[in-house]
Design a protein that fits this description.
The structure is a homodimer. By secondary structure, the first copy, chain A, is α/β, with parallel strands linked by helices. The first copy, chain A, has nine helices and nine strands. Chain A has a seven-stranded mixed β-sheet. In chain A, strand 5 and strand 6 form a beta hairpin. In chain A, helix 2 crosses helix 3. Chains A and B meet through helix 1, helix 5 and helix 9 of A and helix 1, helix 5 and helix 9 of B.
């Protein structure tokens, strides 16, 4: 399946389609037309067809889409047909939140270890992991398959820790620290910058007031 | 200042400019050219000029930008020249994380109350707030200026709570629940869908493998 050269906007929408389809399945909806899907998702039907055409179209439009088939196919496009091992660096509130989040496991993301530099947190159980010392990180990464590192640590530590992980061979970072990591170009970084999200909301409030 | 009809892509980048400028100020950098800024931010200089031209350009390009002036002006565009009162619904890990996050206060977001439906959390201090019963929510919102509600509650409760907040007059939601809230069109919703972010990362991993 050709998934190269897909625009970032399409990639941004794919997980949303996936979430909607998951909700449709929960509601036992077997088939949906692009029109119905578009009404639920507040995007145009032509947008949906255009997006899906990047991946071969996912089935006949005239009869609507088979929800489960579409869900499975988009899951494959998103790489969710297999599990991904994730380690969490930072056992603060954000680290705990993601370790305890049931939806990630359902999608195949398996949290295999949590590390923290604070000795008083060592040994605490969070989700299905026990917090380990940062001293164990190097050995853990070299002995286990670690695909993604979630960085839930302060900005001041994030770049150094990320660079260390890259040198250990970790190729994908899910970064919650409010800074850019400046890693080599072949390392994937997905940022969750909460302050930026809140500022966008503030912008839109201001815009309404004008 | 005309800030209407600005594209969502520009709005998406503005907080990032703001964050970079804040870092430049921390490093005592007084002036920066669009070329230098573009290299740091990995966007083209022409993109930066184009973005800034939506807001009048923010000063002469030939001499570079005055960092503090640019920071202040973008802050004004983002509505950060005044404070915003935020309540948090849900005192779980995500609610705690945002209540304790120092950067929000620095940007003028003031968390004025936290509510949770779990009686065992009532009275616990989180950040500068004490967790209150959901039974207090209606009175609190009617007696206080609440501009933004952060929804850090499970999906099953999110829509009902959001609809209730709207009926109490809250006009902006910062939604962490993994669902769309389906609120009236005049209510602003900024979503933080963590699972979608992680799925985008998974997509990019898969893309690299192909």
């Amino acid at each position: 399946m050709a998934s190269k050269n897909i625009s970032r906007a399409v990639i941004r929408r794919l997980p949303r389609y996936y979430r909607y389809l998951s909700e449709l399945m929960e509601n036992n909806i077997v088939r949906i037309s692009s029109k119905e899907l578009s009404e639920r998702m507040h995007v145009t039907a032509s947008q949906i067809r255009q997006d899906f055409n990047n991946f071969g179209g996912f089935g006949q439009q005239g009869y609507g889409y088979n929800v489960e088939f579409l869900y499975t196919e988009i899951g494959k496009v998103l790489g969710l047909e297999r599990t991904h091992n994730v380690i969490i660096i930072g056992a603060g509130n954000v680290g705990r939140a993601i370790a305890n989040y049931p939806d990630f496991k359902k999608r195949g993301f398996v949290f295999t270890a949590i590390f923290d530099s604070n000795p008083s947190l060592e040994g605490i159980k969070i989700g299905e992991c026990v917090v380990q010392s940062m001293d164990n990180l190097e050995r853990f990464v070299s002995e286990n398959d670690v695909e993604i590192a979630a960085l839930t640590i302060p900005k001041c530590a994030a770049r150094e820790v990320a660079a260390g992980l890259v040198s250990l061979g970790v190729k994908a970072m899910w970064n919650f620290a409010p800074t850019d990591l400046n890693l080599p170009g072949d390392v994937l970084v997905e940022n969750v910058h909460l302050a930026e999200s809140l500022m966008r909301l503030s912008y839109r409030i201001k815009e309404l007031e004008e």
